[in-house]
Amino acid sequence: MAITPHAQSDAEAGRTALRDVRVFDGRELSPPRTVVIDGGVIGTDASGARVVEAGGAVLLPGLIDAHIHLYDRDSLRRLRDHGVTTGLDMATWSLELLASLRGIPGLTDIRSAGTAALGPGGQHAKFPGVPADAIVLDPEQARRFVDTRVAEGSDYLKIVAEAPGQGGPDQSVLDALTAAAHAHGRKVVVHATNTDAYSMARAAGADLITHAPLDRPLSAEEAAAVAAEGRVVIPTLTMMEGVAAATGRSFAAATGSVAALHRAGVPILAGTDANSQPGVPFQVAHGESLHHELELLVAAGLSTLDALRAATVLPARHFGLDDRGAIEPGLRADLVLVDGDPLADIRATRAVRTVWCGGVEHSPT
């Protein structure tokens, strides 16, 4: 396939016609056709375009990792090199670091919660570098916390819930944080790694719950309630697999919960908890881990179609990213060209030929 193997600048991007690509449209693969990249968006006019002969390769919307943590530009490069064109950050303490990583042409585009809300005694409160105002002790402080995050530009709110007695925010604080975020028009993502924390997140009105329980699988009745309440789950099976192995807990509880939630109709998003944080039970590699996550989701009972949707259209929909997640004219040109058919074998997402981030082309070496 004739593709220049260097990353283009914005000025170089111009117009490119990808000829003979099979496009994943969110339901199936199209017959071979042409897709036009016009600057930073998907276009329709191929006149004067540089032509790339794709030879029947599969074109996916850029992949979205719905749970990452950010550290430096290298985090973004590793995401991009594995076809992850959008990363949803679930806690970055430094505003300066976060600002430096937003909107970099040719690298993974990010959204972020900024500082996450913590209780005084949980594991997260002991991580190096946690700012003092991350610890939220009462409902009045919860409202001030949310006001500050909104003023700083947080795209959504992240709360770390723990089972009662394990050092997380109590229910009144969870409730106040969620209500204040919703009053500001922000969605709320709640960390919950056990069924009691899941119950607290649901009682507070969380929009999304991240992680899957490791104490026991959610029952069919509990999963049905999560679905009826309209909640969305980011199970981070890659992280739960690592934590289970490191702590002797049951990974089967996590996969069983995903199976129950999926059967109940709960939207499942692909997120990895990619991190290099000292003190965590398991560090998850940026980029490569999303492909492992898709494989774990399929092993837990999702179809390959559902897994692809979990990393494309569904996170775009549930995080309000209306300019991406599909391959349609006018949308952001976030694209991944892969060898093989991931609807037949989800492992084909690993065979990344070329990535476009906002129309900027990069071929991983």
CATH T-level fold name of the largest domain: TIM Barrel
Q: Largest sheet, if any? A: 8 strands, mixed
The CATH class assignment of the largest domain is: Alpha Beta
Given the C-alpha coordinates, what overall shape results?
A: globular
- Secondary structure tally, helices: 12
Oligomeric assembly:
single chain
Q: Calculate Rg over CA atoms.
A: 20 Å
Strand content: 15-25%
Number of domain units? 2
Report the CATH architecture of the largest domain: Alpha-Beta Barrel
Series of H and E elements: HEEEEEEHEHEHEHEHEHEHHHHHEEE
Class by alpha and beta content? alpha/beta
Question: How much helical structure, as a percent, in the residues?
Answer: 25-40%
Number of strands: 15
CATH superfamily of the largest domain: Metal-dependent hydrolases
Given as residue ranges, the uncertain stretches (5+ residues, pLDDT < 50) are 1-13
Mean pLDDT, as a whole number? 95
Distance between the ends: 15 Å
Descriptive report:
This protein is of the alpha/beta class and 365 residues long. The protein has two domains: 10-60 and 324-362, Urease, subunit C, domain 1; 63-318, Metal-dependent hydrolases (TIM Barrel, Alpha-Beta Barrel), CATH 3.20.20. The chain has helices spanning 10-13, 73-81, 95-101, 139-152, 171-183, 195-204, 220-228, 237-247, 251-264, 288-299, 304-310, 313-318, and strands spanning 15-23, 33-38, 41-43, 50-53, 58-61, 63-68, 84-89, 109-112, 157-160, 188-191, 208-210, 232-234, 335-338, 352-357, 360-362. Helix 4 (139-152) packs parallel to helix 5 (171-183), helix 5 (171-183) packs across helix 6 (195-204) and helix 10 (288-299) packs across helix 11 (304-310). The longest helix has 14 residues, at 139-152. Residues 1-13 have low confidence and may be disordered.
